[in-house]
Every structure is written in structure tokens, then in C-alpha cells.
């Protein structure tokens, strides 16, 4: 079962450079959250701060009644056992085969006998679909397989919080779709709290229960997926819909001249909100909500055609019922 993570007023500088200021949010227990933002906004720094690898200048990170920012090294070491981390490139040891890479945390942090280590490693290898590849070196497999091996290693200590840094980096769209489905299925099986940092808009639109956006040294918005996908907030709307019109420019923020040139331009309509990706076997997830529920509860009319799909059994269709709901706002 995942645990809730509450961040209050988190601020981080490197020297005189502010990375982000006064970030506050709550990652709901057992749900999948995604953190977005233009390149260089400190998303990876945020992950490293959450797990205690970097210390914030101000603020608190509350997990199970403990503020990680005030813990001593021994206490922090214990809390870190709640975390599993998948780094951008998998961070595998090049001289070890996949089995030994995945077994490394068990051998390093537990006193389990080798027979038990093997059982756990093979279970995680099967979970991520790498059966038969355990004897290969990282250099002998594809980027997608390295990501899955890194994920298996992040899972061997049965974490309650899973931090995932740009899982789509270096992957083609097909492999990205496979790994997105894997995250959905894993969340249903282990009920861990997921936080995924990504630039992939399709991932952000179809995978998470919650979305956050870091921009210009602050958290622009964080909340349920439907809230952000129906938002008229300029920076949120621009980023989530991959539009050129808006405050984000090539150097993160547009200057006054660029913004003036866009004055009076009509924004393209918001695209329909897609159905959230369902589990492969139809089992429900803890964070799964009925399509359109947030919009109805908050009196928001979603873009026309939202939550529609031509048939079940494809990415984005709720597999819990095997059918797609009627379009909302059509």
C-alpha cells in the first residue's frame, strides 16, 4: 500500500540561482501523479529532494508523520526504504548482468539468503516482462529493456513510493506506450504511490490520476488530471496541449515583444480529454475515477468529444467495464 507524501513550502537554490520556490502539494497514497515542466525547471531536482539526496533550503516533506528535511542520516536511511527510484537511463552497472543488477539492493540492504534473493529477483523480472534476459549485460539489450530492468531493481524492496524520472527518454512511441501500460498495471498490483517526471504529453494525458506543472521557478498547478486538462490557465493550457501561443518560449519564458505579437490571437480550442489508460486485465486501481467525475463535481464543461472512444480494448479505454462511456460535452 502506498503512503501519502505532503510537500509544504519547498524551496531550493544552487548558489544564488533559484531552482523553484514555495512548492506545496500532496501526492495521494496509492495514486499515480505526473510532474511536467519545460526543460531546466528542476523536475529531476525535485525527485532527488523528495528522496533526501538533496536538502532543500526551506520547507518540509512529510511522510508517515516525519519531516524528511529534519531527519538525521540514520533516520533518513530508514525512511528511504519506502522509496524505489527509476533513473532516466536505468543507472545499471555495466559490468553486472541484469540479475545481479536487480539483486543489488537486496544484497546491499538486507540479509536475505541467496535462495530468497533469487526468488524475489525472478518475480520482479517476470513482473516487468524480462524473462530469459537475466543473464544479459546492460550493453547487450535495448533501451526499453534497460528501463524495465531499472524498474525491476526499483521494485525489489517492495517500495511504497515509486519515483520515476523521464521513463520515455530515448524510447520510441511504441515502447513508451508499453512502459506506460506497465506503470498502470504495476500500480494496480502493488498500490504504491507513483510520481513520474516526463515530457511526454500523451503520457500526461492518459496515465496519471494527478498532474503537476513546474514553470518559471514555481509550481503553476497541481491537481486531478481532468482539472488540468480542462484548465484555461495559459501556461497549463499551452504546455499540456503543445501550443506555441502562450507564455512559454524557446528560453522558457517569452519576452514582452513576443507576448505583444500574440496579443489578440485566438487560441486553438482545447482538445478532448482522453479516457485514462486502464489496466491490461481490467482490475480496478485505487486512484481510478469514473471518466468525467471531476468535471461534473466541479461544474466544469470539458471540451467537446471528451471521454469518447470508438471501442474497448485499446489504450485509453476503461478496461474495468470493457466499454467506453458516452462522450461528455459533445
TrEMBL record:
Highest taxon, organism lineage: Bacteria
Biased composition (Basic and acidic residues): 282-291
Gene3D superfamilies with a match to the protein in the record: P-loop containing nucleotide triphosphate hydrolases
UniProt KW Transport keyword: yes
Keyword Nucleotide-binding appears in the UniProt entry: yes
GO MF annotation, one: ATP binding
Residue stretches making up the ABC transporter domain: 5-241
Protein's UniProt name: Phospholipid/cholesterol/gamma-HCH transport system ATP-binding protein
Organism annotation: Lapillicoccus jejuensis
Annotated spans, Disordered: 275-330
PROSITE patterns tied to this protein: ABC_TRANSPORTER_1, ABC_TRANSPORTER_2
Protein keywords: ATP-binding, Nucleotide-binding, Transport
